[in-house]
């Protein structure tokens, strides 16, 4: 996969649109506005706003739909992708989109209570890997 990886910090400008494909896979779409600050003499001013369409898939999509609302400042990391299509009137268009790998609220402007999402299957017989930061047991040699 040779898509460029990007990180953006901006404001969610719409409610998250969560849909399920016929296969049952969840997809959440949202738009994030990023307005850079640019030097203007001795001060600063807003630069030109850039709008990014973000797509989140599977469990991430469901978590985003539960956690992010219009106006939330977010940090998103993902792969920039290009999608070409033809409109009903026959015009060819191309959209740039970020396929999100990670997203969350920007904690300088909000607080968050994190809760772990359980994935499907019976976890009572599974063991967390030693490097799993969410495991319930700390290693015996932990410095804390």
Question: Topology, pairings included?
Answer:
Elements: E1 5-12, E2 17-20, E3 26-34, E4 37-40, E5 43-46, E6 50-57, H1 58-67, E7 73-86, E8 92-105
Parallel strand pairs: 6-8
Antiparallel strand pairs: 1-3, 1-7, 2-3, 3-6, 4-5, 7-8
Folded structure, characterized:
With 144 residues, the protein is mainly β. It has a single domain, classed as Nucleic acid-binding proteins (OB fold (Dihydrolipoamide Acetyltransferase, E2P)), CATH 2.40.50. It is 7% helix and 45% strand. Strand 2 and strand 3 form a beta hairpin.
Structure class: mainly beta
Q: What gyration radius follows from the Cα positions, in whole Å? A: 19 Å
Question: What name does CATH use for the topology?
Answer: OB fold (Dihydrolipoamide Acetyltransferase, E2P)
**Strands ordered across the widest β-sheet:** 1-3-6-8-7
CATH superfamily (homologous) name: Nucleic acid-binding proteins
Question: What share of the residues lie within helices?
Answer: under 10%
| Form type | globular
Number of domains: 1
Beta-strand percent range:
over 45%
- Class, according to the CATH hierarchy? Mainly Beta
Q: What is the chain-wise order of helices and strands?
A: EEEEEEHEE
Output the number of helix runs. 1
């Amino acid at each position: 996969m040779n898509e460029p990886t990007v990180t953006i910090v901006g404001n969610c400008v719409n409610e998250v649109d969560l849909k399920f494909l016929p296969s049952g896979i969840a997809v959440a779409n949202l738009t994030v506005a990023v307005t850079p600050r640019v030097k203007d003499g001795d001060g600063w001013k807003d630069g030109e706003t850039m709008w990014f369409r973000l797509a989140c898939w599977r469990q991430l999509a469901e978590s985003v739909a539960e956690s992010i609302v219009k106006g939330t400042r977010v940090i998103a990391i993902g792969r920039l992708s290009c999608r070409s299509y033809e409109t009903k009137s026959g015009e060819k268009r191309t959209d740039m989109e970020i396929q999100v790998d990670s997203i969350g609220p920007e904690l300088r402007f909000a607080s968050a209570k994190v809760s772990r999402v359980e994935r499907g299957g019976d976890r009572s017989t599974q063991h967390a890997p030693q490097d799993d930061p969410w495991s319930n047991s700390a290693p015996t040699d932990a410095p804390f």
